[in-house]
Amino acid sequence: MYGAQIAFRDYNPVDGFFWSPWVGLDHFVAFVTSFQFERLVANTLTINTVGLLVAFPVPIILALIVNQLPSERFKRMTQTILYAPSFISVVVIVGMIHLLFSPSSGMVNHAISLLGGEPIFFMGTPEGGVKAWKQHGVRRRVVERMLRWA
Q1: What residues are paired with 22 via a beta bridge?
Q2: Using one digit for the tens of pLDDT, what is the confidence trace for 109-122?
Q3: Is the pTM value of this prediction over 0.85?
Q4: How many Cα atoms within 13 Å fall on the side-chain side of residue 121?
Q5: Which of 57, 131, 139, 147 has its CA 20 to 30 A from that of 51?
Q6: 3-state secondary structure 43-92
């Protein structure tokens, strides 16, 4: 609980927790009387309300849909695909994406070459998807987190 003292002190790292001057509720009064207080509270409540409205029913609906899949094998594969990102580090996922989409050794580009096409540098050109990934990456991550952790 020593870290909670920072809110009630004019904390200075040189002085540390115990020797920084005590200011009591001054920081809280400054926050509540700030011109941005109403906006911050409204944004916080809006984000959390929308998060609850989306994060609560979406995983339940997704679980019901997956449960209704007729093929047991397809159901297990879908569950694995949905839950794998929760257990695999981001570094490993990026490595897997590189293995799939590499212009020289990726399985996707190998299939494109077998069909008579030219390999595409998916990870490095706007036409290859980087622009789309940047535009939709944040929204996708938010939805993924809501689905995964709710």
Answers
A1: 9
A2: 888 888 888 887 87
A3: no
A4: 3
A5: 131
A6: HHHHHHHHHHHHHCHHHHHHHHHHHCCCCHHHHHHHHHHHHHHHHCCHHH
